[in-house]
Amino acid sequence: MVDIFKRYVLDHAEVSEDEFAILESASHIRKLRKRQYLLQEGDVCRYHCFITKGLLRTYSVDDKGNEHIIRFAMENWWISDRESLVNGTPSKYNIDAIEDAEVLLFAKADMNMLMDKLPVFKKMISDILDKSFITSQNRINEVISSTAEEKYHNFVQRYPQFALRAPQAMIASYLGIKPETLSRLRNKR
Amino acid sequence: MVDIFKRYVLDHAEVSEDEFAILESASHIRKLRKRQYLLQEGDVCRYHCFITKGLLRTYSVDDKGNEHIIRFAMENWWISDRESLVNGTPSKYNIDAIEDAEVLLFAKADMNMLMDKLPVFKKMISDILDKSFITSQNRINEVISSTAEEKYHNFVQRYPQFALRAPQAMIASYLGIKPETLSRLRNKR
DNA sequence: GAAAACAATTGACAAATGTCAAGCGCCTCA
DNA sequence: TGAGGCGCTTGACATTTGTCAATTGTTTTC
User: Fold this and answer.
1) With a 7 Å cutoff on the CB, does B178 touch strand D?
2) Contact A23, A121 (CB under 8 A)
3) CATH topology of domain B2-117
C-alpha cells in the first residue's frame, strides 16, 4: 500500500530514501469499504488523500436529491475538497468509495510541514495542482461545447478505467445527463 | 495602468517598493482594441497577463464554427492559457478583447525569475492558482447540475460586472446555451 | 449621414433530453 | 437459497433547448 505511494513519489520527484521516510511517517492509512464516506457534505476536509487502491468519487447533491459527480479518482490520484481544506469551511461535496479502497491521509498541517521541509515534494504537489486546473478548464470547455454523445465518447477515451469500473448511472451523473439518456445513446438511439 | 497593478500587488502580498520595481521592470504594457486577439488558437501562449483595463474572454471554436466561452476576465484578473504556457504547446483557445483593454505582459522566463527572487510573489501566484482551481471545480458542479435558468441567475449574481459588460450572446456562450434560449428565459418564456 | 454590421427578440417547428413506469437479469446477504 | 435490491434497458410521452428565418432598433464605419 505504502509501496504504491513510494513508487509514485519516486517517479514524480527526486526524493531520497530518508526523505521518503519523512513523508511516510506523516501519513496514515485508511481503509474504506464500498459506499463508505471519506468526506461528507457539511464536514470540514482535513486531509490531503492519496489513493493506493480502489475507485472514489466526489459528488454534490442538489435540492431534489440528485447526485452530480464532479470527479472520479483511483490509484495514484490525490483526492480532497481543496476549497474546504484550504479555507477550513464546511464542504459542499461528498467523497465516497465506489469500490473497496485504501487511502493515505496527510493532515493539512503535516502537509504544510512536508512541503516546507522538502521543496521537491512541494514542487510535485504544485505541479499536480497546475495540471488539475488545466484538466478542469478542459472539462469546462467540453461540457459547454459537446453533445451528450461526444461527452460520453471523450470520457471513455480519456478515462477507460473509469468507464470500466464505474456503474453507468454514475458515468451519466459525471456527464450531466440521465442514466436513461446514456443507456439510449450507448445502444445507438 | 501600472498603478492598478501596483495596488493589486500591495493588496495581495507583502512586497516593498524596491521589490515592486523589479516586478514592474519585468512587465511590458500591451494595449488591445476591441476584438483584438491576445492569443490565437494554434499559437503558443508565452505570457502571463495581468489586466489593468477592459474585458477579455477565453474561448474555443468547435467544428461547426461555434464559439464557446471558457471564461471572462477583467481589471485585476490574470489571464493566459496555462496549458499552452506551461507545456509550450499550441493553444486550443483564443483570447481576445471584448472592450478596448490594457494588459501587462510577463514572459514565462521572467515570471519564473520573479517567483524565484520574490517568494511572497510566488506565494501570491500559487494562491491565485489554488483559487482558480476551486472556482473551476465549482463551475463544473454548476454546469452539470443546474438548469439553464439557474445557471444564468447564478452567473448574474456571481459576476454582475460581466453580466453588464458582455453582450448577451457571449453570456449564452459562457453558459453553454444558445442566444435565443437565453433571450427567452430572460423574458420569462 | 447612409449603408452595413451587430444585438436582441420572436415565431414556428425540429431535435435532444428528461420523466415515469415497467421489466429483466444478476448479485448479495441474511 | 430465495427475496430484495441494484443496474440497466425500453416504451410512451412531456419538457427543454436548438434551428432557421424574419424583424427591429442600435451601433459602427466610411
Assistant:
1) yes
2) yes
3) Jelly Rolls (2.60.120)
